[in-house]
Every structure is written in structure tokens, then in C-alpha cells.
Amino acid sequence: MQDISGLPQEGQQLINGYGDGGFRVSGVWYEGSVLILPEKTENWSLADIDGISLDSLASLIEKSDEIEILLIGCGDGMAYIEDDIRNALREKGIVIDAMGTGAAVRTYNVLLLERRRVAAALIAI
Q1: pLDDT-based confidence at 6, cuts 50/70/90?
Q2: Which end of the chain is more exposed for a tag (fewer CB within 10 A), N or C?
Q3: CA distance 11 to 95
Q4: What is the pLDDT of residue 17?
Q5: What does the DSSP assignment read for the chain?
Q6: Angle ∠(9,125,32) on CA atoms, nearest 5
Q7: What angle do CA 19, 108, 78 make, to 5 degrees?
Q8: CA 4 to chain centre
Q9: Cα–Cα nearest to 22, from 36, 9, 11, 10
């Protein structure tokens, strides 16, 4: 039987809200941009998607065995993620999907609750 209760598993990082320059994740407020793995959230130094690089995603890349989808919240709109970043992550088994931050937040929660191996790199708005 498939669990469709919509409740996160113990320790999973569910995004409760966003805006005002930060995110509420599993009841904890994070000021600024964040990197979210299913069981860990950390501050991300990027304030603008133009600064994205493999180095800025290093902590997610280190966990590539735990991630199949990386959602990138680009801020208020969408942005193109360079092919070198996409290809390097694909070699690690991670597919990137870039979209506005609001859409990335909603998509992350849905995929997390579906028990998918998802992570998010979110620019604060």
C-alpha cells in the first residue's frame, strides 16, 4: 500500500513557508538562501542565481548518492543553469530542474512527500 498521508517522515525537511528574505523549514526560520536535503537544511551564501557554480553546490554534490532531483529556486523568475553545471551533476546522477523559488518550494514538498530523493537550492525572495 502506498502512503499518501502527506506527512513527512521523521527528520525530513518540509518547507513550511518562504518570503521576507528567508524560509521556514520544519518549523525553523532560515534567513537568506538555503540548501535543503531531505534530512538537513543549511544556509546558502548566494543572494542571486547568477552566482551559482559547482563550488556553491558542493555540499549537495557530496550527497549525490542521496539525491536524484535537484530543484533550483532562481528567485522571482527563472534562469538558465549553464550546461557545465548540468552535465557535472548529471554525471553524479542528479537531474536539475530550475524554476522560480515559489514553484521550487511547492514542487520540493510534493516530491518529498512522494518519497522521492529530492534536494533544493533556493534563492530567498
Answers
A1: low
A2: N
A3: 24
A4: 95
A5: ----S--PPTT---EEEEETTEEEETTEEEES-EEEETTEEEE---SSGGG--TGGGHHHHTTGGG-SEEEEE-SSS--PPPHHHHHHHHHTT-EEEEE-HHHHHHHHHHHHHTT--EEEEE---
A6: 70
A7: 65
A8: 22
A9: 36
pLDDT, tens digit (0-9, with 9 covering 90-100), for 50-105: 999 999 999 999 999 999 999 999 999 989 999 999 999 999 999 999 999 999 99
Q: Three cell numbers at 51? A: 552566482
Q: What is the mean pLDDT of the chain?
A: 92
For cell 518529498, what's the residue? 112
Encoded amino acid at 15, one letter: I
Which grid cell is 62? 557530496
The three three-digit cell numbers of residue 125, written as one number? 525572495
